[in-house]
Design brief:
Layout: H1 2-19, H2 22-42, H3 46-50, E1 53-60, E2 66-68, H4 70-82, E3 89-101, E4 104-114, E5 121-132, E6 135-147
Parallel strand pairs: 1-6
Antiparallel strand pairs: 1-2, 3-4, 4-5, 5-6
Helix pairs in contact: 1-2
Length: 148
């Protein structure tokens, strides 16, 4: 399955390059960034998640906590994974990805966090991405949730 996903991603990237559609290429790249985010979240990899953010990034959690910079984001995630978010599972559904400029883009969508013994949180997210040295990084991410 990973080989098939990799092949499909490579094919989509090649089609976007051949057709001269940078928006399509960016869509593929940004969807991959969010897919990687979900994978690292499910692994409770706070350091890996924080490395996806720019040095000056801001993350605003659904509970209102604001973390500024990679270090604060990592520490916040470590605390979450050791506490209330321990063993949780994340699902993300992207509604749209829009370029703001050649090196900026925004994505929005919905997410569901499932906890082993607690409520399920559902909500919406808004993420701003900045391309740095050819790589898409998260510049800002905000989540809004409601319990169900």
């Amino acid at each position: 399955m990973p080989l098939l996903l990799s092949t499909l991603t490579s094919f989509a990237t090649a089609v976007a390059l051949i057709s001269g559609e940078p928006k399509a290429l960016n869509d593929v790249a940004l969807r991959q960034v969010l897919a990687n985010y979900v994978t690292l979240y499910d692994q409770a990899d706070a350091r890996g998640l924080a490395s996806m953010f720019t040095a000056s990034a801001v993350a605003i959690g659904p509970e209102g906590r604001v973390d500024r910079g990679q270090r604060a984001i990592e520490e916040g995630l470590q605390s979450d994974f050791a506490g209330a978010s321990k063993g949780s599972h994340l699902e993300v559904s992207i509604s749209s990805i829009r370029p703001l400029s050649g090196n900026l883009a925004v994505a929005d969508g919905r997410y569901v966090v499932e906890f082993p013994d607690q409520a399920t949180f559902q909500g919406m997210f808004l993420a701003t991405f900045r391309r740095e040295n050819g790589q898409w990084m998260i510049e800002a991410m905000m989540g809004a949730a409601r319990t169900t």
